Amino acid sequence: MVRRDSDRLRQYVHLGTGNYHHRTARIYTDFSLFTAAPELTDEVAIVFNTLTGLAGYPGLKKMMVAPFDLSTRLIQLIERERDHARAGKPARIIAKLNSVVDPEIIEKIYEASCAGVKIDLIVRGICCLRPKVPGLSENIRVISIVGRFLEHSRAYYFENAGQPDLYLSSADWMPRNFYRRVEIAFPIEAPALRDEIVNDVLPNFLNDRVKARELQPDGSYLRLHPIEGAPRSQAQLHFRERSRQARRAVAELQAQTGMKLTPIKAAQGDRKRA
Question: 270 pLDDT band (50/70/90 cuts)?
Fold first, then answer.
C-alpha cells in the first residue's frame, strides 16, 4: 500500500504467516506484522516486481524468499548455531511449524544437535525428524499442540551467540514450501515485539502441559501432564485470556473517552467471492 502522508509518500506492508480467508481466520492462529519500515517495504516491492516479471530476483538483505534463497539461507542460520556451539558460545534454535519434512534441513538439525545446540521444535503436524536418539538427536525436543484453534503460525528463533535473530514465516520446512511455492520469512527486529515472542509466546507453547504431546524416538507421541503441584499450563487458554483482557481494556477506554471503534465486516458479496 502506498499512501500520501502529510510529509511524503510512504509505503505500508502487511506481512503474515497465514492467508486472507474470512473463515479460516476464525479458527487458525497466526502472526502478522503491519509496518512502514523502509527496510522491509522496499524489499516487499522488490518481491512484487520479481513476481510480475519486471525484474529478476536480486537477493534481499532482510527477507528470505522461496523458491529463491529461503532454504539456502535457513541452512546457513542452522550452521551458524552449530559453529557457535562448537566454539563454546550460546547456541539455541526454537522453531514453530506445521511440518518438518525436508531431508536437507533435518540433516542440518541433526548436525547442530550433535554439536551441542539445544533445539526445541513445536510441530503441529508431520515431523520426519526423530528426537532423543543417542548419538544423533539427544538435544532435540519435539512437541505438537492440538487445541481449540489450529496452530498455523511459523517462527524461527536463533540464539546467535547472544545476538538473537527471530523470523516469522509463511513456510514450513518442506520441499514444496522451499522449491515449489513463493514463500517469505521476515525478521522481527523491534525489541519490544521480538522480546514478546521470545520471552512470552514461545515459552508458553514449550511449557504447555494440557494440549501438548511430545514426540518419542520410536515415532510415538506421549501426552504431557502438569508436574505435581504445578498449575495447568495451557498456551491457547493463556492467549485467549490475554485477548479478553485487551478487549476489556479497550472497552474501558471507550467508556472513559467516548471513543468508538467500529469493526470492519465483509459485505455478503465479498464473502461469496472470497
Answer: very low
CATH number at residue 189: 3.30.870.10
Residue-range definition of the domain harbouring residue 128:
23-31+61-234
58: Cβ–Cβ under 8 A, 6 or more apart, which residues?
46
Q: Hey, what's the cell of 9?
A: 509518500
Residue 2 in any domain: the answer is no
Question: What phi, psi does 234 have (nearest 5°)?
Answer: -135, 115
The answer to whether residue 266 is domain-embedded is no
pLDDT in tens, 172-203: 999 999 999 999 999 999 999 999 999 999 99
> Is residue 82 one of the residues assigned to a domain?
yes
Q: Which one is predicted more confidently, 18 or 83?
A: 83
**151 Cβ contact partners less than 8 Å away, ≥ 6 residues apart:** 29, 96, 98, 122, 124, 145
Which long-range CB contacts under 8 A does 22-25 form with residues at least 24 apart? 22/266, 22/271, 22/274, 24/150
Q: What are phi and psi of 214, to 5 degrees?
A: -105, 130
Q: How many CA atoms lie within 13 A of 27 on its CB side?
A: 6
Residue 167 is assigned to a structural domain of this protein: yes
Cα gap 186→170, rounded to integer Å: 9
Taking the C-alpha atoms of residue 274 and residue 271, their distance in angstroms, rounded to an integer, is 5
What's the burial of 9, exposed, middle or buried (CB within 10 Å: 0-12/13-18/19+)? Answer: exposed
Q: What's the predicted TM-score (pTM) here?
A: 0.90
